[in-house]
Amino acid sequence: MEKLKILLSLIFLLFLTQTIFAQKKSVDLIVSGGTIVTMDAEKRLFENGAAAIQNGEIVAVGKALDISRQFAARQIINASGKVVIPGLVNTHTHIPMTLFRGISDDLDLQEWLTKYIFPAEAKNVTEDFVRVGTRLGLAEMIRGGTTTFCDMYYFEDAIADETAKAGMRGVLGETIIDFPAPDNKTHEQALAYTEKFVNKWKNHALIVPAFAPHAAYTVSEAHLGNIKKSADRLNAAVVIHVAETQTEVGDILKQKNLRPIEYLDKINFLNNRTIAAHVVFANENEIDILKNRGVGVAHNPQSNMKLASGVAPVPQMLLKDLPIGLGTDGAASNNDLNLWEEMDTAAKLHKVFARDPKILTAEQAFEMATIRGARALHLENLVGSIETGKRADIAIVDFDALHQTPFFNVYSHLVYATKASDVRTVMIDGKVVMRDRRLLTLNENVIKKDANAYQKKIIESLLR
Amino acid sequence: MEKLKILLSLIFLLFLTQTIFAQKKSVDLIVSGGTIVTMDAEKRLFENGAAAIQNGEIVAVGKALDISRQFAARQIINASGKVVIPGLVNTHTHIPMTLFRGISDDLDLQEWLTKYIFPAEAKNVTEDFVRVGTRLGLAEMIRGGTTTFCDMYYFEDAIADETAKAGMRGVLGETIIDFPAPDNKTHEQALAYTEKFVNKWKNHALIVPAFAPHAAYTVSEAHLGNIKKSADRLNAAVVIHVAETQTEVGDILKQKNLRPIEYLDKINFLNNRTIAAHVVFANENEIDILKNRGVGVAHNPQSNMKLASGVAPVPQMLLKDLPIGLGTDGAASNNDLNLWEEMDTAAKLHKVFARDPKILTAEQAFEMATIRGARALHLENLVGSIETGKRADIAIVDFDALHQTPFFNVYSHLVYATKASDVRTVMIDGKVVMRDRRLLTLNENVIKKDANAYQKKIIESLLR
B2-86+392-439 domain in CATH 3.40.50.620? Predict the structure, then answer.
C-alpha cells in the first residue's frame, strides 16, 4: 500500500514536471530584463522585456515574464536597467580609410582629395593596409553598437574576409572606377574581380557582396551599363555615390544635360538593389524617381557638413517614406564611425536648416539608424528591428550614465543623450561580439599597434 | 689625516648637492610627459612637455626636461602619451536645468517653453532642486574636462555654494526677469538679491558673481537700466540672452524700432563686462557694436540647431576677432553639457552653412572652447591657456583610444575625434577634481540618486 502511494506520488510529480517544463522550448540565448526598443511596425517598447534567440534568429520578443514561461535558455544575458536596441546600421563608409582618420581637414574637397587622399591611397593602399584598416573600423563600430555596415573600397574581398572573421554583418561593395585603382588597373579587371567576389560571398550568412561603381562622374555610361548587367545577372546589390556635391550635379548636367539621378534613371541604372550614398542634391522629381525605383539612400550628415557639400533633402524623403539610413562616411572625412553622433546631428541639422524643430524627430533619427537604415540596404527582412524571424543583431546600452541622468523619453535619450561609449554588449547573428565593453572577436591592442605602424608609413609617404 | 680626507669629501659632496639642487625651486605639482597644447598667443605645443604649478598658479611651462631641471615637485602627474589642454570653458548654460534633460523635445520653442519648461520650473524649482541639478551638471562637466562655466539661473547663491564646494570655476549670474521667479517675485527683490549675492562672492577665488537679466524682451528698459547701474557700481559681470530667435528680433524691432543689439547699445547697456548668449541674429553693424563695446559672445551651436533658432554669424565674428566662446546651453535644450560635441558641431555647422570647408577650422573651434571662451567671459588673464601666470585649470586627455587611432594632427584630433569620455584627469585652480575618471569632489552615485528622485517629482508635477 505504502509502495503504491509512493509510486503514484512519483507519477504525479513526473506529470507535474512535464506540464511545467514540457512546453518550455529550449533556446540558445535569452536577453532579459531591459527595456526592449523593438523598432517594429508598431514601435513597441517592452519594459522589463526579453528576447529569445535560437540559431542566431529572434524566435520571440515580449515581456520577460512571458518569455521565461515559454523558453528555457542555455545562456541568459541580464539587461536589467539597460535598453536593448536593434544593432545600428551604418549605411555608408569606406572602412579601410579609418587609417586616414584626420590625415587632413578643413580643406576644399578638390584640394583635400588631390593633395592628401589620392596620393595617400596611391602610396599606401595594399591588401594588408585594407585588412588593418578594416579591423580598426570594425572594432570602433562594434564598440559603438553598429552591427551592419555598407562599405565601398578596394580589395573588398579582404574586407569581407576580415568582416566575416569578426562576426560583423556587411554589404560590401568593390569599387569600380575609371582610373587605375590599388587593386585593379582597368575596368575589365575590376569587373571580373567583382563578379568573382560576388560569387564567392553571395551565400555567406553575414556578407552581402556588392558592385560599387564610384559615381556617375567617375565611371562612364558604358561602364555603368556593364556593371548594371553583371549585377542584374548575379542579383547583386549596387552601391554608388550620387549627387554628393554641387560640382557633380554641374558636371553631369553639362555632359548629359540631365541631373545625376535623372541621368542614372535614364540609363536604367536604378532599382531596388541600388544603394545611393549622399543624395545631397535631389529635387522633388528625383526623390520620386528614387522612391519609384526602390533605391535605398545613405544620408551622411556629418560628412556632408565637414566637406561643406550641402544639406540633403531628408525631411522631403521621409515625407515620401523613402528607405533612407544614416552613414558615417569614411573616417577620413568625419572623423569617426560613430552613428550616435550622426543621429544627433541629423535631428539637429535638419531642424535648423528648415527652421522647424519638429521636422525630424528623435524617433525618426533613431529609425534611420535602425530599421529604415536596414531598408536602405535592402536588408529589412533580416535586420533593423527586434522581432520574431529577424536575425539577432542586438546592442545592449547603458541608460544610467551621469550624462544620461535623469531619463524622460526613450528616443530622445537614445538620440540626444546617449554616446557610443554607453554601449555595453553587442551581438550579431546571435553571437556576442562585445561583452561588457570587451571585444571578443577582435584584439584591440594588436589593432592599435598595427594602425600606428601604418600611421608612420602614411606620414612618410606624404613627405616623399 | 684620514679624518681630514673624509671631512673634505663631505664638504665637497655638500657643495655638489647644493649646486645640483639649490636652483631647483620647490613646487606643489608638475604635470609631466604629455603633449602640452598651450593655446597661448603663439599656439605653442610642447611634445614631452611639462607644467609646474604652485599655489594653483602655473609657474612654468616647457619641455619636460627643462622643467625637471628647474623644479622639484611634491606631486608629479604623469601625462605620458596623453595631451594636456587648458580646461574647457562652457560660456553658457543653466546648470540646474540638467534635471530637465530630455523632458520634452522636437517642439516649437513657444510650445516647449509654455507646455513643459515653464510649468516644470514653476512646480519644481526650489533651492534644493537647484543644488541637486547643479551637482549633476558639475559632475557631467568635470567628467568632460570643463573647468569654467558661465551660468544663468535662479537661487544662484546656492549654485555658487555648490560650485565652490566642488572646486569648479564659474561666472554665475542670478536671473532677473519681469515675471515672478522661483526665488524672487519682483524686480526689486531680484535686484536686491543679486547685489547681496555679488557682494558675498566677489572676492572668491573660483566664483565670479554676475547679474543676469534674462533678455531684452523679458526685462523692461527701466529695469535693464537699474541692473546696469548696480552692475557698474559693483564692477560686476552681466550675462544676458541676446538675439537668440527671429521672434525676439521682430519683437524688439516693433517695440523699439531697433534690432536687439542696436537697442541694447542705445541704452548704454553693453560694455566689457557683458556676456551675450546666442547672438544668432546680428548684422555687420551689430557685430561692430559688440566688438567696440568689448562684449563677450557665447555661441551655442547645438542648442541653436535643436531649437531651430538659426545659425549665428560666427565666421564673421571671428574675422573681426570678437571674444566668442562655445556654450552648451541648458541640458533641457541640447541635451548634454558636452563641449567636445559643441566644438565638433561648430566646425561642421559653419562649414556647411557657408558652403566653405575652410571657414571655421578645428584650431579655431578648439580656441573657442578654451582661450577665446575665456576672453568671452572676460577671464583671459586668469584661464583659457596653459601659460605662466595663469591659474592651473588643466585637463589631461587620452589620445590613444580606438576611435582616436591613428593620430595625425592635434587640433583635428581634439575637435573631430576626441570624446568627453577620453578626458582622464582634471584640475581646477591647481586642485585635482577628477583623477583617472574618478571624481574627487563630487559623489556620482549620490548625485544620480538625488536626480532620479527629482525625475519622479517632475513627471508627477507635469501630470497634475
Answer: no
Task: State how far the Cα of A112 lies from the Cα of A92, in Å rounded to an integer.
Answer: 20
pLDDT value of position A13: 65
Residue B419 and residue A421: Cβ atoms within 8 Å? yes
Looking at residue B44, the DSSP 8-state letter turns out to be -
Domain ranges for chain A: 23-86+391-439, 88-376
Cβ contact, residue pair B407, A447, below 8 Å: no
Rounded Cα distance between A429 and A387, Å, is 13
> Which residue in the set A136, A406, A419 is minimally distant from B405, CB to CB?
A136
Domain A23-86+391-439 is found in CATH 3.90.1150.10: no
Whether A158 contacts A182, CB under 8 Å: no
Per-residue model confidence as pLDDT tens digits over B353-400: 999 999 999 999 999 999 999 999 999 999 999 999 999 999 999 999
Predicted-complex ipTM score: 0.94
What is the rounded CA–CA span in Å between residue A347 and residue A365? Answer: 6
pLDDT tens, A148-159?
A: 999 999 999 999
CA distance B249 to B286: 12
Contact in structure between A376 and A349 (CB atoms under 8 Å): no
Give the integer Cα–Cα distance in Å for B379 and A126.
51
Put simply, the answer to whether B452 touches A356 (Cβ < 8 Å) is: no
What is chain B's percent helix, strand, coil content, to nearest 5? 45, 25, 30
E strands, B13-127, where?
25-32, 35-37, 45-46, 49-54, 57-63, 71-78, 82-86, 88-93
Tell whether the model's pLDDT for residue B69 goes beyond 60.
Answer: yes
Q: Do A413 and B306 touch (CB under 8 A)?
A: no
Q: How many beta-carbon pairs under 8 angstroms link A with B?
A: 206
- Which residues of chain B make contact with A344, given a CB cutoff of 8 A? 341
Facing A406 at nearest CB: one of B402, B403, B454 = B454
Chain A environment of B349 (Cβ under 8 Å):
305, 349, 352
How does DSSP assign B168-207, residue by residue? -EEEEEEEE-SS--SS-SSHHHHHHHHHHHHHHHTT-SSE
Distances (CA, A) of B303 to A280, A320, A408, B278: 24, 28, 19, 9
Q: What is the pLDDT of residue B312?
A: 98
Paired with A211 in beta bridges are: A174, A238
Q: How far is A136 from chain B (nearest CA, A)?
A: 7
Cβ atoms within 10 A of the Cβ of A431, count? Answer: 17
Nearest to A139 among B302, B359, B402 (CB): B402
Q: Do the chains contact at B455 and A136, CB–CB below 8 Å? A: no
Q: Which of B231, B241, B219 is CA-nearest to residue B298? A: B241
CA dihedral B255, B261, B266, B270 (to 10 degrees): 130
Q: For B88-376, which CATH superfamily applies?
A: Metal-dependent hydrolases (3.20.20.140)
Q: pTM for the complete prediction?
A: 0.95
CB contact (8 A) between residue A341 and residue B338: no
Q: How is residue B270 written as a grid cell? A: 553693453
Return the residue matching grid coordinates 573657442: B368
Computed over every residue of chain B, the mean pLDDT equals 95
- Contact by Cβ (8 Å): B199, B235: no
C-alpha cell read off for A171: 554589404
Percent of chain B with pLDDT over 70: 96
Coil/strand/helix, residue A151: strand
Within 13 A of A446's CA, how many CA atoms are on the CB side? 8
A355/B308 CB distance under 8 A: yes
Nearest to B412 among A102, A361, A420 (CB): A102
CA distance A302 to A306: 6
